[in-house]
Amino acid sequence: MSSRVVYSNPWMTVREDEIRRPDGTPGIYGVVEKPDFALVLPRWRDGFWMVEQFRYPVGRRAWEFPQGSWGAGASGDQASLARRELAEETGLRASSMSHLGHLYEAYGYCTQGFDVYLATGLAEGEPDREVTEQDMIHRAFTDEEITTMIRTGRIVDAPSLAALTLYRLGA
Fold this sequence. Notes:
Layout: E1 2-9, E2 12-20, E3 26-33, E4 37-44, E5 47-55, E6 60-64, E7 67-68, H1 78-90, E8 93-104, E9 113-123, E10 137-142, H2 143-151, H3 158-168
């Protein structure tokens, strides 16, 4: 019925929508608008490369797969974004990048989706991280180590877990 922006910054917009449910009753919906991002599963023979960084909203460090969105004023296709994020965060370059699927971060309140890519044929190089990623580290883990990290709460990033599920299902 109506929509109003309640907050906006260069990375997100929060809006409140007045809605009418199918039965005719009124309601409101809070929606976070964020641009889509790309997430990369950098595969080596025995597992994957991952990155670890501090995530301010939850106040902790955790391991996740390289991921990110186009910054202000930048744009391009999602495969190019995936290659850029992989190189930026890990220094890795992939000879092959395969699209595994498109998922949503938290579609109950957020518009943001993400494309999952499998990167293979990796060559190592130097990362070129943004200032917000200065505390980031990266390293390779075996599949067994990753399973243990999930069980022990060292990997808690929902998009990373969903992307790994797509890979393991043979998407």
